[in-house]
Amino acid sequence: MAMTAAIRPVRTQAELGLADVYTKARRGLPGGSDIAAVRTAAFNQFMLAGLPNARVEAWKYTDLRRLMRDAKPLAAAPDAIAKGMARDAGSLLAGLGFRRLVIVDGTFVEELSDLFELEPGLTVRSMAGALALDEPMLSQGLGPMVPADESALALNTALAGDGVVITVLADVVVARPIHLVFVNTGSAPAAMVTRSLVVVGKGAGATIIETHEGRGQADYQVNTALQLVVGDEATVDHIKVTSEDKGAIHIGTLLAHVGARAKFSEWGFTSGGAVVRNQLFVMLSGTGTVANLRGLSLLAERQHGDTTLTVEHAAPDCQSRELFKAVVDDEARAVFQGKITVRQQAQKTDARMMTRALLLSDDAEADGKPELEIFADDVQCGHGATTGNLDDQLKFYLMARGIPEKQAEALLIQAFAAEVVEAIEHEGIRDALMEAIVGWLGQRG
Amino acid sequence: MTPLLEIRGLRAEIAGRKILQGLDLRVDAGEIHAIMGPNGAGKSTLSYVLAGKPGYEITDGEILFKGEDLLAMAPDERAAKGVFLAFQYPLEIPGVATVTFLRTALNAQRRKRGEDELSSPDLLKRVREIARKLGIDPEMLRRPLNVGFSGGEKKRNETLQMALLEPLLCVLDETDSGLDIDALKIVANGVNALRSSERGMIVITHYQRLLDYIVPDVVHVLAAGRIVKTGGKELALELEATGYAQFQSVAA
């Protein structure tokens, strides 16, 4: 074998497929010449690194090179049938009166969305439309937050076709939650690559919920990213529910840039999909901000659920709390990687991270890696990780009162999950998620 | 008449340690039996084996509950049949509200017996009524089960569960431990209110004190895994005076 062959990475079938997808799609992707240049650079970056794999520390437990067998073609714009299939999507939060913005197979569909009587100061547009105007938002403020070798996001930048752009002007509090309904009808294997941007101005407020779900049985692939800009003194709640179909691969990236004296709550719920990776990059760039980040994964069969979190305290006097739990059954695998970085100037930082995994079977696996990286000297930081089984003593106590074994287990699992769910302020969302948890428990044999 | 409970030649061990070594006991409906004995005699093991706690190996003997093989039943089936163990150390279950737990337990038992489930308002009414009699603050029912409850509150909560579930056989494991005299009286009153001709009780205790308030029909001495002496309620007083040393030498 020639020497040069050894240093050139061997392309997997999926990587070759992605190159093919990009080559075919590039001319049709929205955006003028500036955006095209950003896409080209991102694609080159992706090709240099290849699919994220076990040799990249941040992807240590989620080797996409191994898990992603092939590349799917980009999904076609939804036709009438697909739109029909999408009509009852997001039913988890039905009846709560939220403003629904519906994205079908990666395309924002206005006619299915509720764009009536937008609150003054709130604007909603499609990302494709914004890109067509060559707005530089794809690259806005990303620089220091994301590692240069973050190739899943690079792939998103290269291929993103649509999504939504939401802006809330300064001092405008949008009381009605905004529900981004992502639905993948999946009548044929396809890839959905979306990019969204939410900018909440100074002193403004908004609640943004994303739900991601499937409608078919096809093994579709999702690469979705949300960039969230939280202004000074703004209050933003972001909730993401990932409940894709059984065969789906879902790669999600959150890029949150939080200003001073802001309140930012992040909440993630993962229950569906074959391989799910939710990566969160959170930058606390102004003083006096409070950030609460929580997540819950319910995994069964051979599911793989990865939550990887980076919180950067770049300013003094911020408080952050991270609590991530996973319930893992059958042969499923849960991954949590959390890293809190405290920059030298970020004195008086108060950060606490906790991850807990509950294993329900002998073949279930949980990998946890909490990390602290501290450059300031006057801080309060801590982290912890636990992994365990259901407590047999507690189970016996419940059974001794007449509660059958499965129901006793369900009660204990519900109790384990409740701690995370109770942190959600909105009662309707809290109840809906509790119901989703009970539904998941009901499916256990 | 078929006895409520009949234990014959029961031998049980845990992790290879022989605890019960040929225990015989018969309890008829309407009777209260006290089981007294020194620490390590096997009192708690007996209560756990009756309730079906995993980890105990039954090497010989049988337990018949109303003529049925109790050892063949899972703990929840035993409960539905009417066996209730009031735990010496009731467990704390964070995240499960007491009232949710009570509703789940009662309705699971009723379902298993083929009875209709009790509606939430009806259940709440009954629970409140019992709680009032036991001096339990209704606010406590909304709190997670036993979390942050004092020793006395936990024992009252056990008594409340017993009153709600209306078992046929009540096994009280060291119900007096950790109780001051006022709490003891309240719990004993709760237990006495459940005395009936259909119900049998086994009161396990180290001290005679509890038996001043829950007066037994029969007193047994359990030592080294066997019943070594049986008598009337006066036996308890006798033991209070003489201690257990004589039985430990008998057993050895």
List keywords for this structure.
heterodimer, A: 445 residues, alpha/beta, 2 domains, 10-stranded mixed beta sheet, 23% helix, globular, B: 252 residues, Rossmann fold, 4-stranded antiparallel beta sheet, 12 strands, 37% helix
In short:
Chain A is of the alpha/beta class and 445 residues long.
Report on this model:
Chain A folds into 2 domains: 12-285, no CATH class; 390-445, no CATH class. Chain A is 23% helix and 37% strand. Chain A contains 10 helices and 19 strands. In chain A, the strands form 2 sheets. Chain A has a 10-stranded mixed sheet, covered by helices on one side. The model of chain A is unreliable at 1-6 (pLDDT under 50). By secondary structure, chain B is α/β, with parallel strands linked by helices. Chain B has 9 helices and 12 strands. Chain B has helices at 43-51, 75-81, 98-112, 120-133, 151-165, 181-193, 209-213, 234-242, 245-251, and strands at 5-14, 17-27, 32-36, 56-65, 68-69, 83-86, 93-97, 144-145, 169-173, 200-205, 218-223, 226-231. The longest helix of chain B is centred in the middle third of the chain and has 15 residues, at 98-112. The chains are: A alpha/beta (445), B alpha/beta (252). Chain A binds chain B through residues 392-394, 396-405, 407-408, 411-412, 414-416, 418-419, and chain B through 51-54, 74-76, 78-80, 84-85, 87, 90-91, 93-96, 100-101, 104-106, 108-109, 112, 144, 161, 165.
